[in-house]
Design goal:
Blueprint (H helix, E strand, L loop, with lengths): L5 E8 L5 E8 L4 H12 L4 E5 L2 E2 L16 E6 L4 E6 L3 E6 L5 E6 L5 E6 L5 E6 L4 E5 L5 E5 L6 E6 L5 E7 L13 E7 L4 E7 L5 E6 L5 E6 L4 E5 L4 E6 L6 E6 L5 E6 L3 E6 L6 E6 L5 E6 L5 E6 L3 E6 L5 E6 L5 E6 L5 E6 L3 E6 L4 E7 L5 E5 L4
Protein name: Ubiquitin-like domain-containing protein
Pfam family, one: WD40
Keywords: Repeat, WD repeat
């Protein structure tokens, strides 16, 4: 078998210019992989890599970042990233991920929060609520910057585009009678963040839209629905271009891989599935092992692992390539509702109906911090973008 090509990259202090390390990584690696190599070589735990003055995202491939043989990257120290939680107690909270201390309580919603998500620069936080609105908050001050109104029912999710200019919300449509709840339709809404205006509604699902997320270039939105499908939408055309069928119960969460070549779905049928976007093969892999509904799912920054959150009170870490579970995170006293990877991929954050969120070491499957303070279910928790 032919050996995989490696490249040598030099890391230097972005401010001092001092040469810090020379590392060798696979040419096919991502910036997250390069960051890990630089961390190991320098002993620095929290750092940001720069190409010139541009911060490099962990999900970028080295090729996309322009880092070939002999390339040089700048290194700056980075403060510990904040984390955010959203709860049925109608508040969002911001936390120091090193100490576990709550730094802000964001009040303004009139009903419980279903979802929270940072903007790419981590200066803003979006929240989605059962009060039929989404809100955008200032992370530094805790002030509400905007309220996005117009939904006719619960807003289940909110997510920024990767340039921070758009927001996608997933929601239910109005229901006239309780008997219609199980088959209630839903839609995703695309918003212009600057003007707080809805620019597009993506309609076609025959059930609640539980999540809606952008691909990296912002041209596509991926939705997950109670109609047991996920759908891919072309924003320029305004219609669905691909439907992913195979789950036998509600699809609660869906996410793009870091390179946008595949996606993952999580379902109440107790499984997660990966799907190939570059072919018509359909489902690549089914991840079986949870004893309860799978409510949340996320790719690691390098795309090699998945994390799932389940009503069986656990989160699990999986190999994307092989489908094997390589860690089970045990400790929550209630169903686990969401899961998020830290930018470096070494930690995951979970939220639970036990009123807490937890930060875990992925290698040791050990709980590092329990974030306590909410007075009801914690439906969502997230790290900043990577």
């Amino acid at each position: 078998m032919e050996a995989e090509e490696h490249v040598t990259v030099v890391a230097h202090g972005a401010l001092s210019g001092e040469r810090l390390a020379e590392v060798s990584v696979r040419a096919s690696s991502t910036v997250a992989g390069l960051t890990l190599a630089v961390q190991e070589a320098t002993g620095l735990k929290q750092l940001q890599l720069l190409a010139g003055s541009r911060p490099l995202a962990g999900s970028e491939t080295l090729a996309a970042a322009g880092l070939g043989q002999g390339a040089s990257v700048g290194v700056v120290a980075r403060r510990t990233p904040p984390v955010a939680t959203g709860s049925a107690d109608a508040t969002a909270r911001l936390w120091d991920s090193a100490s576990g201390e709550c730094s802000q309580v964001l009040r303004g919603h009139h009903r419980g929060l279903n979802s929270v998500a940072f903007s790419p620069d981590a200066d803003r936080l979006a929240s989605a609520s059962a009060d039929y609105t989404a809100k955008i908050w200032c992370v530094a001050t805790g002030a509400c910057l905007a309220t996005l109104s117009g939904h006719a029912h619960y807003v289940n999710s909110a997510a920024f585009s990767h340039d921070g200019r758009q927001l996608a919300t997933g929601a239910a449509e109005a229901c006239t009678h309780p008997s219609q709840m199980r088959h209630q339709k839903g839609a995703a809404w695309v918003w212009d963040v600057e003007h707080c205006s809805c620019t597009l509604r993506l309609e076609g699902h025959d059930g609640y839209v539980n999540s809606a997320v952008f691909c990296r270039d912002g041209r596509m939105v991926l939705t997950a629905s109670n109609d047991t499908t996920a759908r891919l939408w072309d924003l320029a055309a305004g219609h669905c271009v691909q439907t992913f069928s195979g789950h036998i119960d509600y699809v609660i969460s869906a996410a793009f891989s870091p390179d946008d070549r595949s996606l993952v779905t999580a379902s109440d049928d107790k499984t997660a599935r990966t799907w190939d976007l570059a072919s018509d093969r359909g489902c690549n892999q089914t991840f079986v092992g949870h004893g309860g509904e799978v409510r949340g799912v996320a790719f690691s920054p390098d795309g090699a692992s998945l994390a799932t959150a389940s009503k069986d009170r656990t989160a699990k870490l999986w190999s994307v390539a092989g489908g094997e579970c390589w860690r089970t995170l045990i400790g929550h006293r209630g169903p686990v509702h969401s899961v998020s990877f830290a930018p470096e991929g070494k930690e995951v954050l979970t939220s639970s109906l036990d009123r807490t969120a937890r930060i875990w070491d992925t290698e040791k499957a050990a709980c590092l911090l329990s974030l306590q303070g909410h007075t009801s279910h914690v439906f969502s928790a997230c790290f900043p973008y990577w």
